[in-house]
Amino acid sequence: MTKVQTTHHLNQAIEALMTRQDTCPLHNFEVVEKDFPMRFVCSKCGAEVDGFEMFWYTKGIEHGIKLFSHFGPTGGNECVTPNENL
Ligand SMILES: [Zn+2]
Among the four residues 1, 15, 50, 86, which has the most C-beta atoms within 10 Å? Predict the structure, then answer.
């Protein structure tokens, strides 16, 4: 296999991994390395993150829940007409 072919196969593998990780409905990260900076792997898609990335991923979920509970599913970015049938 030539260097160009190897690079092409690597690029395809990386693209497939990124697609699988991007389409994961909700990561289920499990600790795989407890030493700093720690490593986590999603049991569903295989995404791997370090402790810093895990912190911000978790923080993003927390903020998303707060936005959803305060503003509803649009996050306050759209005018929502109240459902009069409720
Ligand atoms: Zn995942």
Answer: 50
